[in-house]
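Handout, section B. The chain below has 169 residues.
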Amino acid sequence: MKRILASCILFLFIYTLYAQYDTSQFTGLWVLQSVKFKRPVDLNKDGYRSSDAFWEFDECRKDQQIELLPDYNAKTYYGSNKSGCTNEVKTYKWNLKEELVKEVKYELGKRVVDERRPTVLKLNDVTGNDAKVFVVIGVDENILTLKGLVKSSANTTEEAILIYRKRKK
């Protein structure tokens, strides 16, 4: 009996070391504050390229929120708080898990593959057709920082860092 109890305590200790985030840290309504692209883009076709998407986004595109509920349901809101914008709401199921992520880059002409197991936030469409995947950079009671792909044109995406601020109720 003592061995079983000791094994359970050891398992819980090791699990807490490897569990990076508590899902309760993620619940709430998160309002988009910043989008930084890896490479400069010209989203608004004004001839100037910028890494800061907020210089490139119109007011409607800046108005984005993610609501992560404790029951693992989620909603994304686009243009819901600005007048003149088309209000778009999508429903998802969300989860967190550690997954193998490979990042390929070139340093001094050599291909370098970085493999790691970060925590990933997945938003899965209820139909199973639309899934959004973000690497969690960090989360606290006020700020959620994610890395993911953001549309840069009708049929291309660019890697970006997205920063959300939690809306107080």
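Note. Confidence is low (pLDDT under 50) at residues 5-19. Compare this with the example in section A.
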